[in-house]
Amino acid sequence: MKKLLLLFVVVAGATQFASAQLIPSFSFGVKGGVNLSSLSFSDPDFSSGNRAGYLGGIYARVGGLGFNFQPELYITGKNVNIETEVEGVTAVNKVKFTSIDVPLLLGGKIGAFGLGGRFLTGPLVSFKINDDQSTGQALGRAVTLSDVKNQNFAWQFGAGLDIKKVSLDVRYELGLTKQGYSFEGGEGKTRINLFNVSLSYQIY
């Protein structure tokens, strides 16, 4: 009797696991979180200070055989400080810009019984809505972004944890589009990189 009960538990667990991994599924939900943006400079005279931003929007997930495709649509607020020191005075340019971001992610999932881990990666296209720059000390001598392009591309890498209908995601976003910046005496190119943490809730 004990052997039959044990066999039943094993079969039930295997069935649940196989169902979670093999049967095609669709889900839809909302998500929100925070991010930290940074700029990569090859010139050691310039540095990028992190400032918290936000993201909020929706996602969909289509999966089967342990893999899934996850398109997302959300609004992102990105904030960063560009700093340089001139004659003992730190010049700071506070950059803020808002965009609509569309990641198209491929990933895999392991787990069962409403608990699982995910990994994902894929391209992201970002459409700028607006931007603002305010220069602090040493006005006119700080580094300024020439103009954040209206359409930018990036690549996301991340992992997530699912608990029932709630998911926690941690991602790194590598900027692919080069942005121009200018300073007294020259110009250069930089990329916008981003780290974000988000929570999502499955509605359907």
Instruction: Give the end-to-end Cα distance, rounded to a whole number of Å.
Output: 40 Å
The strand line-up of the biggest sheet is 1-2-3-4-5-7-8-10
Order of helices and strands, N to C? Answer: HEEEEEEEEEE
- Overall strand count: 10
- The poorly predicted ranges are 1-21
How many domains? The number is: 1
CATH class: Mainly Beta
Structural class: mainly beta
Give the helix tally. Answer: 1
Strand content: over 45%
Radius of gyration, in angstroms, nearest whole number: 22 Å
Profile the largest sheet: 8 strands, antiparallel, barrel
Helix content percent band: 10-25%
CATH topology: Porin
- Chain-averaged pLDDT: 83
Protein name: PorT family protein
InterPro entries: Beta-barrel_OMP_2
Signal peptide: 1-20
Keywords: Signal
Summarize the structure.
Helices cover 10% and strands 73% of the residues.
Keywords for this structure?
Porin; 10 strands; 204 residues; eight-stranded antiparallel β-barrel; 1 helix; mainly beta
Description:
There is one protein chain. The protein is mostly beta strands. It has a single domain (2-202), classed as Porin (Beta Barrel), CATH 2.40.160.20. The chain is 10% helix and 73% strand. It has one helix at residues 2-22; strands spanning 25-40, 46-64, 67-86, 89-112, 115-135, 144-145, 151-163, 166-175, 178-183, 186-202. The chain has an eight-stranded antiparallel β-barrel with strand order 1-2-3-4-5-7-8-10. The radius of gyration is 22 Å and the shape is elongated. The model is unreliable at 1-21 (pLDDT under 50). Residues 1-20 form the signal peptide. InterPro entries: Beta-barrel_OMP_2. This is PorT family protein. Residues 21-178 form the Outer membrane protein beta-barrel domain. It comes from Mucilaginibacter limnophilus.
